## 1
Amino acid sequence: MLMSHIYLGIGSNDKPKENIRLAIKELRGFFGKIQISPVYKNKAVGFKGEDFLNLVVAFHTELSVKELMKIIEKIHALSGRKRTSEKFSSRTLDIDLLLYGQDILNNGDLIVPREDILKYSFVLKPLSEMAPNLIHPETKQSIISHWKSMSSKSDDLQLVGIELN
């Protein structure tokens, strides 16, 4: 099987430092070496709640999307995440598959590349710092060019120093 370059968005606003460290530790356990973006703090979107900490991680894997999603759900469970019908709510941990190589997927439950990449500065900013020259599979534009067109929205992001290594 071929190795795919994976990008995940990670966010938390319920014990965020603790839960992000848990996610990083578990992802390293499953995938070994992972690349970690800077961490940003931003206001909750769509509801009133504690600020979120968000970052992006990248790694290579031979796992299928389905196998990868099972691992993500295991990590969610370890953080005590409860699935609710509310789209916008507090989260112990939210791990989203942003990119799976250059694949474009839409099976109803899962859309990749994730639309959040082009929608939210807290996803695009750390991704642009990690992989500025990466080409978005659908738009065929670089991640940094997307960031430059969005950067007026970056005022709501605050760089946070958090030790994850």
Note: The helical segments are 16-31, 65-78, 116-119, 121-130, 143-150.
## 2
Amino acid sequence: MHALYRQGGRERRMAPHIVYQEASCPHRDCDQPMQAIDFRLEDHGRAVHDPLVRAWWNDIGFAGRCPRCGGWIHFTIRGKRAITPEESAEYPQLPDDWHARATIL
């Protein structure tokens, strides 16, 4: 089912939105709500949208900073996890202001 979901999203180039099982930022001691996220990548233009959408549907995901604690997070279809700044360099990255345009619940 996961492969079929990914194929449909990739073919349609759908901007990612997700509901995670975990309710908040994955960094310890941070209570930033992050259970449901509409990243609104289309608001950042094609140069941001296209590579991040490809990474999302290819199951690579992307990295971005938590708007509250500033810690790096690896976001994927399957989940989100706290990562180091060095690890964040391995992934496509959200713009610094991604959270200002996203809907985060």
Note: Residues 2-104 form one domain.
